[in-house]
Structure formats: C-alpha cells, structure tokens
Amino acid sequence: MPGHRIDEELELVWLQRAQAEPLFALIQAHRAYLSRWLSWPQEIQSLEDTRSFIRYSLQQFVAGQTRLYALQFRGEVVGVCGFNAINKSLRRVRIGYWLAEPWQGHGIVTRACRALIAKAFDEWQMAVVEIAVALDNHPSRAVCERLGLRPSLCIPQAEQLGDRLVDHLVYAVTRDEWLATEASREGYPV
Fold it and tell me: Whole-prediction pTM value?
C-alpha cells in the first residue's frame, strides 16, 4: 500500500497487516510509557489484538472515517499517526498519534502532523483540524504549539488512564489560519 514520504528519514505508511508484528513488539516494549497517556495499550495483549486493530482501522478507512499510518523513521516502525476522525460534512478532521519514547526529540510527530494538516487543507479542503491531548502531556502540547494550533476547548475527565481520569485539551487550527501561518513560515507575503 502506498504511503507518504515526508523526508529522507520519515515516511507515513498506510497501516496494514504486515505491520502487526513490529507494532505489537513496539507496544510490548513501551507499554508502561504509552499507558501514561493512552488508554488502549492495556487492551493490546497479543499479536492477534494488534491484527484486529489493524483490520478495524482498514474497515474504518474504507468507510471514509479514519486514515491511519505507521510512522516509519529510518526504515523502522516507531509509532502511529493519522486521522482518527474524518467528518466530511462538517469539513473537520482530528489527528491522533503515538510515538515510542526512544524516538522522541527527533521532530517525528511534528513533521508527520504538518504533512497531515497540509493534506487535510490542501487536498481535502477541510475547514478545521483538531488534535486532542491529555492536559498534562506537555510533549504533545508542545507539538500542537509548534504547529501553530491554538487551545480551543478543555474537556474535563475525558479519558480514564489506569486509575486516574485525565482532562483533554483540544487544539485547533482553521484552514485560513494554517495557510497564513505556512505562508509566513515559508517567507511568502500573507
């Protein structure tokens, strides 16, 4: 299946069955870290659970509701990034991602999200892109801020992570805001 090469190091590869084993190994190795910010790692207890998730993701892709990619950095699967929700009638998408801890600090998620945001606005003509993050997840909040998204909504007790409830902060950017920011970032007059 095709993907999207972002640069010489990073590629978004459509999530597919062949990635079940490397994704499961990655989740197994980094379960404790991932569980700090995500509820689903505890549900992925076997290779078959990973395969089921990929099958479900492919069904959602066919239905036009999601589009998920494996993050492939220097040829290795290091996480997942994509459109967790696509609402064509409202022209809104929500991006989600996870990255195993050892690969943080390389700009992987920022570069991947920038490519997805551009796709949402340039190719799909979406009106709004959102990213929801746990309020205390400062690395994910920094990604949103680097991308020029602004906090738009705080959802109290949005998710249960183990024995704690966490608030979500929803960041958003409109198409017009994004195009103006990208134009000024690239040195074009706004």
Answer: 0.91
Rounded CA-CA distance 82/103 in Å is 17
Strand partners for 150? 172
Task: Quick: pLDDT tens for 109-145.
Answer: 999 999 999 999 999 999 999 999 999 999 999 999 9
- Laid out side by side, the sheet with 128-134 consists of 3-5, 10-14, 67-73, 76-87, 92-99, 128-134, 164-174, 150-161
Task: Answer whether 190's CB lies under 8 Å from 180's CB.
Answer: yes
Query: Pairing relation of β-strands 150-161 and 128-134?
Result: unpaired
Measured torsion, CA atoms of residues 16, 71, 91, 61, in degrees rounded to the nearest 10: 0
